[in-house]
Predict the 3D structure of the following.
Amino acid sequence: MDDPYATIGFALKLAQQALRTHMDAGLQRIGLTTPQYAVLNFLKAEPGASNAELARRSFVTPQTMQGIVVALERSGFIVRAPHPEHGRVQTTELTERGREILAAASGIVSEAEARLRAASAPLDPGTLTEALLRLAEALR
């Protein structure tokens, strides 16, 4: 390939970086980071998730997740408790305050998603999403 910047990989990274920068800027206004949003959003869908599950779903290491969880707990957005069957495992759940900040954050993320969908025209957003998921799967 003559132009290394005219590759699928470079375009994907550029799009990912632009999305992350956009989300970081919007979420920062309400005191969150993109990984913190990911954790709160996952906990809405999967209350009681462990740190290991949260790390996998948020694309961070377990060590990084520990820092994220501590910050969210200090902010009053989550509570942790020992797992009823596995003593060393902590379960994590949203607090009322966490649900409120998640609702505000979801509006910011929805705006970014709407911009992506508009920019994908004339392609169908569902078709584009399926293609991106196939690309990810091809490299696993």
